[in-house]
């Protein structure tokens, strides 16, 4: 049986998240907020899902670049692995730094910095767009001559380390603080305090920050405040992904000359007018999150997260045995569920129609095999008639359960 063992990463990292939560709770530390954690994990699920669809594409790019345009044809060896690690970390530093300094790159990376919590769930806040942009930077490696197998293996290992940097439970690590990126260094990177802004871009080695003047140690008298300098205050899955893109579009539209429009695209994020956020929220009717939401809501969303994490593990493990229509159908249902969970936490009324759309996708899945399609069509028609006939009653009961209201 040919399994994709990377699927085991989902339960493994979920286990570490639960362990960190348990230790925090035991120590009486309020490091976790349920809704923030669900929001973080939702973004991570979408990224893992996208990885199923595009990982092979990235390998194909590396392989073709190395074979057709590589300056060298490097063979695996101890020295070559060491060089590949150093090059990978160096390229990451510059990708990460430019992602904070250029608007068109920040629109992909901003999602990672939106959380006002700082725990292992924050490490999941990676978008597929960010993965594509990083791949553009890492294309330097096959052009040098490193083979695709070495690159993808190194990126897999290199990507594991940052997960453990997103914690407040670990203090300073002695001599390692001078060489490696530590949780203390990364807390600085995620902080919105003036003293900490745009610092500590390193992924594994901190030496690049010290070499290029972007290092800042964590000060005892200046506790980090996490999140964006202008907090997003929303759990919306879609808005977290696209708010800065919309702000950037509005900023470009506000400029009259073409040269000014191009400049704002490649300018620094702080040059974007902060009032454009309110304008964007008004256009799309985004309501900032206020107080706490009801317990039934928590249960409903949590169970959806548990089911998604479980099914995602199975899908990744057995992806080699799944057809493309099956992968696409699962992806569509998953994305709808993530949008649904975010909208529920925002207490939107349109989630009821989203539930119908999700149910419709489930009902259409059996048609893929086209066996006994007449029976399947009959079952779907019966369910459709039931849903239409008792529409108002179902809607009322749904909102009573989800929002504890009639």
Concise account of the structure shown:
With about 400 residues, the protein is mostly helical.
Characterization of this structure:
The structure is a single chain. By secondary structure, this protein is mainly α. Helix content is 62%, strand content 0%. The chain contains 17 helices and no strands. It is globular. It starts with 8 loop residues before the first helix and ends with a helix. The mean pLDDT is 89.
Instruction: Specify the structural class.
Output: mainly alpha
Stretches where pLDDT falls below 50 for ≥5 residues? none
Shape: globular
Strand share of the residues?
A: under 5%
The SSE string, one letter per element, is HHHHHHHHHHHHHHHHH
Give the rounded overall mean pLDDT. Answer: 89
Helical percentage: 55-70%
Number of strands: 0
Helical region count?
Answer: 17
Give the end-to-end Cα distance, rounded to a whole number of Å: 51 Å
- The biggest beta sheet, please? none
The whole-angstrom Rg is 23 Å
Key terms:
single chain, 406 residues, mainly alpha, globular
Task: Describe how the helices and strands are arranged.
Blueprint: H1 9-26, H2 34-69, H3 78-101, H4 103-109, H5 128-138, H6 140-144, H7 148-160, H8 183-190, H9 207-212, H10 237-253, H11 258-265, H12 275-283, H13 295-317, H14 324-345, H15 351-364, H16 373-389, H17 391-403
